[in-house]
Protein backbone atom coordinates (compact mmCIF):
# COMPACT_ATOMS: atom_id res chain seq x y z
CA UNK A 1 0.00 0.00 0.00
CA UNK A 2 1.36 3.44 -0.85
CA UNK A 3 1.88 6.06 1.86
CA UNK A 4 -0.15 9.26 1.70
CA UNK A 5 0.69 12.79 2.82
CA UNK A 6 -0.17 13.70 6.46
CA UNK A 7 -3.59 15.30 6.97
CA UNK A 8 -3.58 19.09 6.79
CA UNK A 9 -0.41 19.29 4.68
CA UNK A 10 0.14 19.60 0.93
CA UNK A 11 2.80 19.41 -1.74
CA UNK A 12 3.79 22.44 -3.74
CA UNK A 13 4.18 21.10 -7.28
CA UNK A 14 5.15 22.50 -10.69
CA UNK A 15 1.65 21.54 -11.76
CA UNK A 16 -0.99 19.84 -9.63
CA UNK A 17 -3.26 17.36 -11.43
CA UNK A 18 -6.12 18.70 -9.28
CA UNK A 19 -7.47 21.69 -11.23
CA UNK A 20 -8.68 23.34 -7.98
CA UNK A 21 -5.13 23.38 -6.62
CA UNK A 22 -3.56 26.02 -8.84
CA UNK A 23 -2.57 27.90 -5.66
CA UNK A 24 -0.12 25.07 -4.95
CA UNK A 25 1.85 25.60 -8.18
CA UNK A 26 5.46 26.26 -7.31
CA UNK A 27 6.04 29.13 -9.75
CA UNK A 28 3.32 31.15 -7.95
CA UNK A 29 5.10 30.57 -4.64
CA UNK A 30 8.39 31.74 -6.18
CA UNK A 31 6.67 34.81 -7.55
CA UNK A 32 5.02 35.76 -4.25
CA UNK A 33 8.21 35.10 -2.29
CA UNK A 34 10.12 37.27 -4.80
CA UNK A 35 7.76 40.22 -4.26
CA UNK A 36 7.93 39.66 -0.49
CA UNK A 37 11.74 39.80 -0.48
CA UNK A 38 11.77 42.95 -2.60
CA UNK A 39 9.31 44.78 -0.36
CA UNK A 40 10.95 43.56 2.87
CA UNK A 41 14.34 44.81 1.64
CA UNK A 42 12.83 48.12 0.56
CA UNK A 43 11.61 48.70 4.12
CA UNK A 44 14.97 47.71 5.63
CA UNK A 45 14.11 44.23 6.94
CA UNK A 46 16.90 41.66 6.78
CA UNK A 47 16.44 37.92 6.64
CA UNK A 48 16.67 35.58 9.62
CA UNK A 49 16.24 31.79 9.54
CA UNK A 50 15.65 30.01 12.81
CA UNK A 51 15.27 26.24 13.41
CA UNK A 52 11.98 24.55 12.62
CA UNK A 53 11.83 23.28 16.23
CA UNK A 54 12.63 24.91 19.56
CA UNK A 55 12.45 23.99 23.22
CA UNK A 56 8.77 23.73 24.16
CA UNK A 57 9.24 26.21 27.00
CA UNK A 58 9.98 29.00 24.51
CA UNK A 59 6.44 28.92 23.15
CA UNK A 60 4.84 28.27 26.54
CA UNK A 61 6.49 31.39 27.91
CA UNK A 62 6.49 33.37 24.66
CA UNK A 63 3.10 32.79 23.09
CA UNK A 64 1.40 32.08 26.43
CA UNK A 65 0.15 28.86 28.03
CA UNK A 66 -3.43 30.19 27.95
CA UNK A 67 -3.52 30.67 24.18
CA UNK A 68 -5.20 28.09 21.92
CA UNK A 69 -1.97 27.71 19.98
CA UNK A 70 -0.03 26.54 23.04
CA UNK A 71 -2.79 24.75 24.93
CA UNK A 72 -4.28 22.83 21.98
CA UNK A 73 -2.32 23.09 18.79
CA UNK A 74 1.36 22.42 19.34
CA UNK A 75 3.31 19.56 17.79
CA UNK A 76 5.31 18.65 20.86
CA UNK A 77 7.58 15.62 21.17
CA UNK A 78 10.30 14.28 23.40
CA UNK A 79 13.63 13.84 21.64
CA UNK A 80 15.99 10.96 22.27
CA UNK A 81 17.66 12.98 25.04
CA UNK A 82 14.26 13.27 26.79
CA UNK A 83 14.01 17.00 26.11
CA UNK A 84 10.62 18.43 25.20
CA UNK A 85 10.72 20.02 21.73
CA UNK A 86 8.03 21.71 19.67
CA UNK A 87 7.69 22.34 15.94
CA UNK A 88 7.39 26.11 15.81
CA UNK A 89 3.74 27.21 15.68
CA UNK A 90 4.77 30.80 14.86
CA UNK A 91 7.91 32.85 14.26
CA UNK A 92 7.96 35.71 16.77
CA UNK A 93 9.07 33.82 19.89
CA UNK A 94 11.84 32.06 17.95
CA UNK A 95 13.15 35.31 16.46
CA UNK A 96 13.18 36.91 19.94
CA UNK A 97 15.06 33.88 21.29
CA UNK A 98 17.72 34.39 18.60
CA UNK A 99 17.97 38.15 19.29
CA UNK A 100 18.43 37.53 23.01
CA UNK A 101 20.83 34.61 22.59
CA UNK A 102 23.06 36.41 20.07
CA UNK A 103 22.65 39.78 21.84
CA UNK A 104 21.81 41.36 18.48
CA UNK A 105 20.57 44.44 20.34
CA UNK A 106 24.10 45.29 21.47
CA UNK A 107 25.30 45.24 17.86
CA UNK A 108 22.43 47.38 16.56
CA UNK A 109 19.99 49.32 18.70
CA UNK A 110 17.31 48.59 16.09
CA UNK A 111 16.83 45.14 14.58
CA UNK A 112 14.44 44.74 11.68
CA UNK A 113 14.19 41.12 10.63
CA UNK A 114 12.04 39.05 8.28
CA UNK A 115 11.50 35.33 7.74
CA UNK A 116 9.71 33.05 5.32
CA UNK A 117 9.04 29.48 6.36
CA UNK A 118 6.71 26.76 7.58
CA UNK A 119 4.80 26.90 10.89
CA UNK A 120 3.02 23.95 12.47
CA UNK A 121 -0.31 23.95 14.27
CA UNK A 122 -2.42 20.91 15.06
CA UNK A 123 -5.71 22.44 13.98
CA UNK A 124 -8.78 20.87 12.40
CA UNK A 125 -7.92 21.12 8.70
CA UNK A 126 -10.35 23.00 6.47
CA UNK A 127 -10.14 25.30 3.46
CA UNK A 128 -7.41 27.83 4.22
CA UNK A 129 -6.37 26.11 7.47
CA UNK A 130 -3.49 23.66 7.46
CA UNK A 131 -1.34 21.79 9.95
CA UNK A 132 1.73 23.08 8.17
CA UNK A 133 1.39 26.56 6.72
CA UNK A 134 3.93 29.04 5.42
CA UNK A 135 4.36 32.49 6.86
CA UNK A 136 6.15 35.62 5.84
CA UNK A 137 6.79 37.50 9.06
CA UNK A 138 8.63 40.65 10.10
CA UNK A 139 9.74 41.80 13.53
CA UNK A 140 11.05 45.31 14.32
CA UNK A 141 12.83 45.50 17.67
CA UNK A 142 14.07 48.66 19.36
CA UNK A 143 11.62 51.50 18.68
CA UNK A 144 8.65 52.15 20.95
CA UNK A 145 7.54 55.02 18.70
CA UNK A 146 4.25 54.87 16.79
CA UNK A 147 6.25 55.64 13.62
CA UNK A 148 7.54 52.07 13.77
CA UNK A 149 4.00 50.65 13.91
CA UNK A 150 3.01 52.95 11.04
CA UNK A 151 6.05 51.96 8.97
CA UNK A 152 5.11 48.32 9.42
CA UNK A 153 1.51 48.91 8.37
CA UNK A 154 2.75 50.93 5.40
CA UNK A 155 4.98 48.00 4.39
CA UNK A 156 2.10 45.54 4.67
CA UNK A 157 -0.11 47.81 2.61
CA UNK A 158 2.61 48.15 -0.04
CA UNK A 159 3.21 44.41 -0.08
CA UNK A 160 -0.41 43.48 -0.69
CA UNK A 161 -0.69 46.22 -3.30
CA UNK A 162 2.48 45.12 -5.12
CA UNK A 163 1.12 41.59 -5.17
CA UNK A 164 -2.05 42.90 -6.82
CA UNK A 165 -4.50 42.23 -3.98
CA UNK A 166 -7.53 44.49 -3.65
CA UNK A 167 -10.46 44.97 -1.25
CA UNK A 168 -8.63 43.87 1.88
CA UNK A 169 -9.99 44.99 5.22
CA UNK A 170 -7.43 46.47 7.64
CA UNK A 171 -8.68 46.35 11.23
CA UNK A 172 -6.78 47.97 14.04
CA UNK A 173 -7.17 48.27 17.79
CA UNK A 174 -5.15 48.85 20.92
CA UNK A 175 -5.12 46.37 23.78
CA UNK A 176 -3.29 49.01 25.80
CA UNK A 177 -0.27 48.54 28.03
CA UNK A 178 -0.44 46.31 31.11
CA UNK A 179 -1.97 48.99 33.31
CA UNK A 180 -4.71 49.75 30.77
CA UNK A 181 -5.37 46.07 30.17
CA UNK A 182 -5.67 45.30 33.89
CA UNK A 183 -8.14 48.16 34.24
CA UNK A 184 -10.13 46.94 31.23
CA UNK A 185 -10.12 43.29 32.40
CA UNK A 186 -11.68 44.38 35.69
CA UNK A 187 -14.40 46.36 33.95
CA UNK A 188 -15.07 43.59 31.42
CA UNK A 189 -15.34 40.97 34.15
CA UNK A 190 -17.69 43.20 36.13
CA UNK A 191 -19.90 43.47 33.05
CA UNK A 192 -19.74 39.74 32.20
CA UNK A 193 -20.13 38.30 35.71
CA UNK A 194 -23.96 38.39 35.74
CA UNK A 195 -23.97 36.88 32.21
CA UNK A 196 -21.39 34.20 32.90
CA UNK A 197 -23.68 31.17 32.76
CA UNK A 198 -25.08 32.32 29.42
CA UNK A 199 -21.66 32.51 27.80
CA UNK A 200 -20.27 29.64 25.69
CA UNK A 201 -18.15 27.03 27.44
CA UNK A 202 -14.98 28.40 25.84
CA UNK A 203 -15.74 31.93 27.01
CA UNK A 204 -16.57 30.76 30.54
CA UNK A 205 -13.16 29.07 30.63
CA UNK A 206 -11.52 32.26 29.39
CA UNK A 207 -13.28 34.41 31.99
CA UNK A 208 -10.56 33.66 34.54
CA UNK A 209 -7.57 32.83 32.31
CA UNK A 210 -7.82 35.57 29.69
CA UNK A 211 -11.11 37.51 29.63
CA UNK A 212 -9.89 39.66 26.72
CA UNK A 213 -10.14 36.68 24.38
CA UNK A 214 -13.91 36.50 25.05
CA UNK A 215 -14.17 39.59 22.85
CA UNK A 216 -13.22 37.69 19.71
CA UNK A 217 -15.41 34.68 20.43
CA UNK A 218 -16.94 33.30 17.23
CA UNK A 219 -20.07 32.26 19.16
CA UNK A 220 -23.13 34.31 18.10
CA UNK A 221 -24.74 34.31 21.54
CA UNK A 222 -21.46 35.51 23.09
CA UNK A 223 -21.34 38.31 20.57
CA UNK A 224 -24.92 39.32 21.43
CA UNK A 225 -24.06 39.37 25.13
CA UNK A 226 -21.02 41.51 24.40
CA UNK A 227 -23.12 44.25 22.76
CA UNK A 228 -23.10 46.47 25.85
CA UNK A 229 -19.57 45.54 27.02
CA UNK A 230 -17.13 48.31 27.92
CA UNK A 231 -14.65 49.33 25.22
CA UNK A 232 -10.96 48.81 25.72
CA UNK A 233 -10.36 52.15 24.02
CA UNK A 234 -12.14 53.85 26.95
CA UNK A 235 -9.70 52.19 29.36
CA UNK A 236 -6.42 53.26 27.73
CA UNK A 237 -4.14 55.24 30.02
CA UNK A 238 -2.45 58.38 28.73
CA UNK A 239 0.64 56.68 27.24
CA UNK A 240 -1.35 53.92 25.49
CA UNK A 241 -3.94 56.39 24.20
CA UNK A 242 -1.29 58.74 22.87
CA UNK A 243 0.48 55.87 21.11
CA UNK A 244 -2.72 54.64 19.50
CA UNK A 245 -4.05 57.98 18.30
CA UNK A 246 -0.61 59.09 17.03
CA UNK A 247 -0.49 55.88 15.01
CA UNK A 248 -3.93 56.51 13.53
CA UNK A 249 -2.84 60.06 12.67
CA UNK A 250 0.24 58.74 10.83
CA UNK A 251 -1.88 56.23 8.91
CA UNK A 252 -4.21 59.05 7.90
CA UNK A 253 -1.23 61.09 6.68
CA UNK A 254 -0.13 58.14 4.52
CA UNK A 255 -3.74 57.59 3.38
CA UNK A 256 -3.61 53.99 4.54
CA UNK A 257 -7.18 52.81 4.96
CA UNK A 258 -8.13 51.12 8.25
CA UNK A 259 -11.10 50.42 10.43
CA UNK A 260 -10.90 50.66 14.23
CA UNK A 261 -12.33 47.44 15.67
CA UNK A 262 -12.51 47.64 19.46
CA UNK A 263 -13.26 43.91 19.70
CA UNK A 264 -9.98 42.93 18.05
CA UNK A 265 -7.64 41.25 20.54
CA UNK A 266 -5.81 38.49 18.56
CA UNK A 267 -5.07 34.97 19.70
CA UNK A 268 -1.53 35.25 21.02
CA UNK A 269 -0.88 36.45 24.57
CA UNK A 270 2.14 38.67 23.97
CA UNK A 271 0.42 41.69 22.44
CA UNK A 272 0.70 45.10 24.07
CA UNK A 273 -0.82 48.35 22.72
CA UNK A 274 -1.29 48.05 18.92
CA UNK A 275 -2.99 44.99 17.39
CA UNK A 276 -4.16 44.66 13.80
CA UNK A 277 -5.52 42.11 11.40
CA UNK A 278 -6.05 42.09 7.65
CA UNK A 279 -8.83 40.01 6.18
CA UNK A 280 -9.91 39.01 2.71
CA UNK A 281 -13.56 38.50 1.79
CA UNK A 282 -12.54 35.79 -0.68
CA UNK A 283 -11.19 33.46 2.00
CA UNK A 284 -14.43 32.29 3.60
CA UNK A 285 -14.40 31.22 7.26
CA UNK A 286 -10.60 31.46 7.62
CA UNK A 287 -10.53 35.01 6.35
CA UNK A 288 -7.49 36.38 8.18
CA UNK A 289 -4.75 36.88 5.64
CA UNK A 290 -2.33 38.54 8.05
CA UNK A 291 -2.04 39.98 11.50
CA UNK A 292 0.29 41.34 14.12
CA UNK A 293 0.91 44.01 16.66
CA UNK A 294 3.20 45.43 19.28
CA UNK A 295 4.65 43.19 21.98
CA UNK A 296 6.75 45.42 24.23
CA UNK A 297 6.98 43.01 27.17
CA UNK A 298 7.96 39.81 25.37
CA UNK A 299 11.73 40.13 25.13
CA UNK A 300 12.00 40.82 28.85
CA UNK A 301 9.68 37.93 29.60
CA UNK A 302 11.98 35.63 27.63
CA UNK A 303 14.99 36.70 29.70
CA UNK A 304 16.27 39.54 27.52
CA UNK A 305 16.46 43.29 28.09
CA UNK A 306 13.36 45.47 28.24
CA UNK A 307 13.05 46.25 24.54
CA UNK A 308 9.96 47.35 22.62
CA UNK A 309 8.98 45.49 19.44
CA UNK A 310 6.26 45.25 16.83
CA UNK A 311 5.68 42.66 14.12
CA UNK A 312 3.37 40.98 11.69
CA UNK A 313 2.92 37.76 9.73
CA UNK A 314 0.93 36.74 6.68
CA UNK A 315 -0.01 33.24 5.54
CA UNK A 316 1.36 32.62 2.05
CA UNK A 317 -1.32 30.00 1.22
CA UNK A 318 -4.03 32.56 1.93
CA UNK A 319 -2.22 35.25 -0.08
CA UNK A 320 -2.04 33.01 -3.16
CA UNK A 321 -5.60 31.75 -2.71
CA UNK A 322 -6.83 35.35 -2.58
CA UNK A 323 -4.77 36.31 -5.65
CA UNK A 324 -6.43 33.50 -7.59
CA UNK A 325 -9.93 34.25 -6.26
CA UNK A 326 -9.47 37.91 -7.25
CA UNK A 327 -8.30 36.83 -10.72
CA UNK A 328 -5.11 38.86 -10.42
CA UNK A 329 -2.79 38.54 -13.46
CA UNK A 330 -0.11 36.11 -12.34
CA UNK A 331 3.08 35.03 -14.08
CA UNK A 332 2.91 31.80 -16.06
CA UNK A 333 5.27 28.94 -15.29
CA UNK A 334 8.60 29.21 -17.08
CA UNK A 335 8.61 27.19 -20.32
CA UNK A 336 11.31 26.35 -22.87
CA UNK A 337 11.94 28.74 -25.73
CA UNK A 338 13.06 25.85 -27.91
CA UNK A 339 12.60 22.08 -27.91
CA UNK A 340 15.05 20.10 -30.05
CA UNK A 341 14.04 16.75 -31.56
CA UNK A 342 16.96 14.85 -33.07
CA UNK A 343 16.44 12.06 -35.60
CA UNK A 344 19.38 9.65 -35.49
CA UNK A 345 22.64 9.45 -33.56
CA UNK A 346 24.58 12.18 -35.39
CA UNK A 347 21.73 14.64 -34.86
CA UNK A 348 21.48 13.62 -31.21
CA UNK A 349 25.14 14.52 -30.66
CA UNK A 350 24.78 17.85 -32.47
CA UNK A 351 21.60 18.74 -30.54
CA UNK A 352 23.23 17.89 -27.24
CA UNK A 353 26.00 20.35 -28.05
CA UNK A 354 23.54 23.04 -29.18
CA UNK A 355 21.53 22.51 -25.98
CA UNK A 356 24.65 23.18 -23.93
CA UNK A 357 25.52 26.32 -25.92
CA UNK A 358 22.01 27.74 -25.68
CA UNK A 359 21.92 27.24 -21.93
CA UNK A 360 25.26 28.99 -21.56
CA UNK A 361 23.54 31.93 -23.21
CA UNK A 362 20.73 31.69 -20.64
CA UNK A 363 18.24 30.44 -23.22
CA UNK A 364 15.74 28.01 -21.72
CA UNK A 365 15.69 24.92 -23.95
CA UNK A 366 15.11 21.17 -23.79
CA UNK A 367 15.71 18.23 -26.08
CA UNK A 368 14.34 14.74 -26.52
CA UNK A 369 16.63 11.90 -25.46
CA UNK A 370 14.08 9.11 -25.95
CA UNK A 371 13.98 8.75 -29.73
CA UNK A 372 10.30 7.82 -29.39
CA UNK A 373 7.78 8.34 -32.20
CA UNK A 374 7.55 11.96 -33.34
CA UNK A 375 3.90 12.22 -32.33
CA UNK A 376 4.68 11.20 -28.75
CA UNK A 377 7.64 13.56 -28.49
CA UNK A 378 5.58 16.44 -29.88
CA UNK A 379 2.90 15.73 -27.29
CA UNK A 380 5.52 16.08 -24.55
CA UNK A 381 6.87 19.33 -26.07
CA UNK A 382 3.30 20.62 -26.02
CA UNK A 383 2.76 19.55 -22.43
CA UNK A 384 5.82 21.48 -21.22
CA UNK A 385 4.61 24.43 -23.34
CA UNK A 386 7.69 24.74 -25.54
CA UNK A 387 7.41 27.95 -27.56
CA UNK A 388 9.09 26.46 -30.62
CA UNK A 389 10.28 23.08 -31.82
CA UNK A 390 13.02 22.03 -34.26
CA UNK A 391 13.28 18.58 -35.78
CA UNK A 392 16.86 17.85 -36.79
CA UNK A 393 17.87 14.99 -39.08
CA UNK A 394 20.63 14.31 -41.62
CA UNK A 395 19.32 16.97 -44.06
CA UNK A 396 19.50 19.72 -41.44
CA UNK A 397 22.98 18.61 -40.41
CA UNK A 398 24.18 18.70 -44.03
CA UNK A 399 22.59 22.10 -44.71
CA UNK A 400 23.79 23.43 -41.32
CA UNK A 401 20.39 24.96 -40.74
CA UNK A 402 17.15 24.12 -38.98
CA UNK A 403 13.46 24.94 -39.21
CA UNK A 404 12.02 26.50 -36.05
CA UNK A 405 8.32 25.84 -35.75
CA UNK A 406 6.32 28.24 -33.58
CA UNK A 407 4.01 26.04 -31.55
CA UNK A 408 1.27 28.67 -31.27
CA UNK A 409 1.03 30.00 -34.82
CA UNK A 410 2.47 26.97 -36.64
CA UNK A 411 4.75 29.35 -38.63
CA UNK A 412 8.18 28.06 -39.57
CA UNK A 413 11.47 29.96 -39.89
CA UNK A 414 14.76 28.63 -41.26
CA UNK A 415 17.82 29.57 -39.24
CA UNK A 416 21.47 28.47 -39.49
CA UNK A 417 23.02 26.73 -36.51
CA UNK A 418 25.45 29.63 -36.30
CA UNK A 419 22.72 32.25 -36.26
CA UNK A 420 20.45 30.39 -33.81
CA UNK A 421 21.38 32.25 -30.63
CA UNK A 422 21.10 35.71 -32.26
CA UNK A 423 17.79 34.75 -33.83
CA UNK A 424 16.29 33.65 -30.51
CA UNK A 425 17.54 36.80 -28.79
CA UNK A 426 16.02 39.04 -31.49
CA UNK A 427 12.73 37.15 -31.36
CA UNK A 428 12.60 37.62 -27.59
CA UNK A 429 13.06 41.37 -27.82
CA UNK A 430 10.46 41.64 -30.62
CA UNK A 431 7.92 39.73 -28.47
P1 LIG B 1 -1.18 34.59 13.46
O1 LIG B 1 -2.33 35.53 13.28
O2 LIG B 1 -1.36 33.45 14.37
O3 LIG B 1 0.02 35.50 13.94
O4 LIG B 1 -0.72 34.04 12.06
C1 LIG B 1 -0.41 34.92 11.00
C2 LIG B 1 -1.08 34.48 9.71
O5 LIG B 1 -0.71 33.13 9.40
C3 LIG B 1 -2.60 34.43 9.75
O6 LIG B 1 -3.15 35.70 9.49
C4 LIG B 1 -2.92 33.45 8.63
O7 LIG B 1 -2.86 34.10 7.37
C5 LIG B 1 -1.76 32.50 8.71
N1 LIG B 1 -2.14 31.26 9.43
C6 LIG B 1 -2.18 31.05 10.76
N2 LIG B 1 -2.56 29.80 11.05
C7 LIG B 1 -2.77 29.18 9.87
C8 LIG B 1 -3.17 27.86 9.47
N3 LIG B 1 -3.43 26.90 10.36
N4 LIG B 1 -3.30 27.59 8.15
C9 LIG B 1 -3.05 28.56 7.22
N5 LIG B 1 -2.66 29.80 7.52
C10 LIG B 1 -2.51 30.12 8.82
C11 LIG B 1 1.26 35.03 14.25
O8 LIG B 1 1.65 33.92 14.01
C12 LIG B 1 2.15 36.09 14.86
N6 LIG B 1 3.48 35.49 15.10
C13 LIG B 1 2.25 37.32 13.99
C14 LIG B 1 3.15 38.36 14.56
C15 LIG B 1 4.43 38.60 14.23
N7 LIG B 1 2.84 39.19 15.55
C16 LIG B 1 3.88 39.93 15.83
N8 LIG B 1 4.87 39.57 15.05
Describe the structure.
This protein has 16 helices and 16 strands. It has 431 residues and is an alpha+beta fold. The chain has an 8-stranded mixed β-sheet with strand order 1-5-6-11-10-9-7-8. It has a 5-stranded mixed β-sheet with strand order 13-12-14-15-16, sandwiched between helices. Helix 6 (146-163) runs parallel beside helix 10 (238-253). The longest helix is centred in the middle third of the chain and has 18 residues, at 146-163. The protein is elongated and about 95 Å long. The protein starts with 25 loop residues before the first helix and ends with a helix. The structure holds histidyl-adenosine monophosphate (HAM).
Strand order of the largest sheet: 1-5-6-11-10-9-7-8
Shape: elongated
Gyration radius, to the nearest Å?
Answer: 28 Å
The portion of residues assigned to helices is 25-40%
Roughly what is the average pLDDT, rounded to an integer?
95
Structure summary, number of beta strands: 16
User: What are the bound molecules?
Assistant: histidyl-adenosine monophosphate
Q: How would you describe the oligomerization state of the chains in this entry?
A: single chain
How many separate helices?
A: 16
Poorly predicted residue ranges: none
Structural class category: alpha+beta
Question: How can the largest sheet be summarized?
Answer: 8 strands, mixed
Question: CA-to-CA gap between the ends?
Answer: 50 Å
Taken as a percent bin, the fraction of beta residues is 15-25%
Amino acid sequence: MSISIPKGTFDILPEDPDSKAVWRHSHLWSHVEGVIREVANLYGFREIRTPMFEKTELFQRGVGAGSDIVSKEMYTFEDKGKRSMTLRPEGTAAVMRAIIEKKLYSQNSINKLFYIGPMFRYERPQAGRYRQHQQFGVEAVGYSHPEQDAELLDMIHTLYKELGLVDLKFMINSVGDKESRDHFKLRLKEYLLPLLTELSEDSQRRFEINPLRILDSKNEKDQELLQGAPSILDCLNEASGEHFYSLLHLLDRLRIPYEVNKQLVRGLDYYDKTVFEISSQQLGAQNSIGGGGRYDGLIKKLGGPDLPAVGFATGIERVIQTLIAQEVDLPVAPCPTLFLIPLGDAAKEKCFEVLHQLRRERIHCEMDYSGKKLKQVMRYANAIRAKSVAIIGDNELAAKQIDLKDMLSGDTKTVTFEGLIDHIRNEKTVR
